[in-house]
Amino acid sequence: MSAVKRRFFVSITTMALTKKQKQDIIDDLKEMLSRQKAIILVGISGLKVKDISQLRKKLKAIDGNLKVVKKTLIELALKESNLKFDKDKFREEIALVFGFKDEILPAKIVYQSSQENENIKILGGFLDGNFKEAQDLITLAQLPTREELIAKLIFATRSPLFGFYNALQRNLNILKVKG
């Protein structure tokens, strides 16, 4: 019985998409491309479905999205959105990660996931309509977030004030003891 199920599953997964299905995928991609602030191209060769699902959950939490699509369909959708993409430059399976609210946070999440799973690789991406190489996106992903920078700034400005306040309090306490 399991051999029958296995053959049935294989025949479903290898069935070619119809032109209508392909056009629906391209239309869906174009809609996402019109709303995106960042697109990260992620290599997912050898990645398990469980790992893709975990990455999707992390991205959904920041209003991001992960879409696994054939390179030819990616090329067509990007071309119609006036973004240059050469599918022959990439040998592995590709997923598109879209960031709809933040430009850097999706790259940060993909980078952190790539540190945990060697099958996830940042291949490049689009920021402000321009293609960025993988190393550029990794560098951006390693930068602190806006919130982290604000917290560091607040701490840095408060630290000298607290030191000054403590010095004054110490002097006041000395004067009270003597007086």
In a nutshell, what does this entry contain?
By secondary structure, the protein is an alpha+beta fold. The chain has helices spanning 2-13, 19-35, 49-61, 71-80, 105-116, 134-142, 146-178; strands at 38-43, 64-68, 94-99, 121-127, 130-133.
Characterise this structure.
Helix 2 packs across helix 4 and helix 5 crosses helix 6. This protein folds into 2 domains: 126 residues, 2-Layer Sandwich (Alpha-Beta Plaits), CATH 3.30.70; 35 residues. A hairpin with a 2-residue loop joins strand 4 and strand 5. The N terminus is likely disordered. The chain has a 5-stranded antiparallel beta sheet. It has 179 residues and is of the alpha+beta class.
